């Protein structure tokens, strides 16, 4: 990263607030772990918690708009500094954004019904404010290539609003539209960023030739996710089941071809790279499960969606957090055995929560618990390993 920040000024800021990835990756991974523990304990009847809008709403909402949104914010607020050569938010501004995110989590979990408007407003402000901080820097140098993230963040905010509409008297279907829409938007973001970085990381990590993109395949694969997103939003409006099944299967094929070209087999000795490849596989897997669901197979929509949320989204988050945290703290891009265990854990968690559950639905509760425990292991290991990394200055003495 370029030395674009006054290092003397940087030393006055606590390391945790020097760049967006630090607090959001750290607290996001902790939240991912603790919220899953709470979900599992509630599922087994060990504890009783009554968050706003109920426990099921809380689990689906907070995994997407709490945990995932935090990691997206941390990544974009860090990446925009590299893209634009303009310092990103840090210090007081970053602390404010982190506190805003944390306050929303607390209000949703512990707030009373009368506090719903405050919780909703606090939560809904987070992503647009992140979009403002990112877009402001991108627009300053007219780097329009990276403006795609701004409408995506705005659409994510709209999906978040959808999840609150039933509590305001609207039809209950809006909550599912919000969570399914957010899932497909983040999957789109994962696919988009994966296409940008995975061929390059594969070439650099394995000392092989970089695979060049095929323009029609890239556009078609990303566009297919938009089609699936629209059809999922319309699923309660009319009978689009067969059309949705065909669209999902077509999207799965396009993404499978795209990822096959990236040569997963050359990465098996490089954990920071194979972790990216394996988690991306859950995009076509999840799309196939969605296709089977809408075709009429005995696979629940939740099972199919969790292939995307746990596998593609959770797995990509874990892999990218590891890489970004090392690179932006001046460390070698290498991970030890514990993080390799974490990568395996999140992949197996996704397999259990989607593929295994689709085949053996009679073991639903057992698979939910096993998948949840593996998820906690994966993100708990990240928090444990990266707490000293994210809360300390860069090892090379540079800003960031």
Automatic annotation (TrEMBL):
UniProt KW Transmembrane helix keyword: yes
Domain of life of the organism encoding this protein: Bacteria
Transmembrane parts of this sequence: 21-43, 63-80, 92-110, 116-135, 147-165, 185-204, 216-234, 240-257, 264-292, 304-326, 338-359, 365-384
Name under which the protein is recorded: NnrS family protein
Pfam families referenced in this protein's UniProt entry, alphabetically: NnrS
Alphabetical keyword list: Membrane, Transmembrane, Transmembrane helix
Keyword Transmembrane helix: yes
Annotated organism of origin: Alteromonas mediterranea (strain DSM 17117 / CIP 110805 / LMG 28347 / Deep ecotype)
């Amino acid at each position: 990263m370029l030395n674009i920040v006054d290092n003397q000024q940087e030393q006055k800021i606590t390391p945790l607030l020097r760049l967006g990835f630090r607090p959001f990756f750290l607290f996001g991974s902790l939240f991912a772990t603790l919220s899953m523990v709470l979900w599992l304990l509630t599922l087994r009847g060990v504890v009783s918690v009554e968050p706003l809008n109920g426990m099921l709403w809380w689990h689906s909402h907070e995994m997407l708009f709490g945990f995932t949104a935090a990691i997206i914010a941390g990544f974009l607020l860090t990446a925009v500094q590299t893209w634009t050569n303009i310092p990103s938010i840090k210090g007081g501004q970053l602390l404010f954004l982190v506190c805003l995110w944390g306050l929303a989590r607390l209000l949703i979990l512990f707030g009373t019904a009368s506090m719903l408007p405050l919780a909703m407003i606090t939560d809904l402000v987070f992503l647009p404010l992140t979009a403002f901080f990112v877009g402001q820097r991108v627009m300053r140098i007219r780097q329009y290539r990276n403006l795609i993230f701004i409408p995506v963040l705005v659409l994510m905010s709209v999906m978040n609003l959808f999840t609150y509409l039933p509590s305001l008297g609207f039809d209950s279907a809006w909550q599912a539209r919000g969570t399914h829409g957010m899932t497909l938007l983040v999957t789109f973001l994962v696919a988009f960023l994966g296409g940008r970085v995975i061929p390059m990381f594969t070439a650099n990590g394995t000392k092989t030739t970089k695979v060049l993109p095929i323009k029609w395949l890239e556009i078609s694969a990303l566009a297919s996710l938009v089609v699936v997103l629209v059809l999922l939003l319309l699923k309660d409006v009319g009978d689009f089941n067969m059309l949705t099944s065909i669209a999902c299967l077509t999207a799965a094929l396009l993404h499978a071809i795209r990822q096959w070209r990236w040569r997963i087999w050359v990465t098996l000795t490089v954990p920071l790279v194979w972790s990216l490849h394996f988690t991306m596989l859950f995009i076509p897997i999840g799309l196939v499960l969605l296709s089977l669901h809408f075709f009429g197979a005995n696979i629940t929509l939740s099972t199919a969606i969790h292939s995307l949320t746990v596998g593609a989204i959770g797995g990509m988050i874990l892999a990218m957090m590891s890489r970004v945290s090392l690179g932006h703290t001046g460390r070698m891009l290498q991970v030890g055995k514990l993080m390799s265990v974490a990568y395996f854990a999140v992949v197996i968690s996704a397999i259990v929560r989607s593929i295994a559950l689709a085949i053996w639905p009679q073991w639903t509760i057992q698979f939910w618990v096993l998948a949840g425990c593996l998820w906690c292991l994966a993100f708990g290991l990240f928090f444990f390993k990266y707490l000293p990394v994210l809360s300390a200055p860069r090892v090379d003495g540079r800003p960031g």
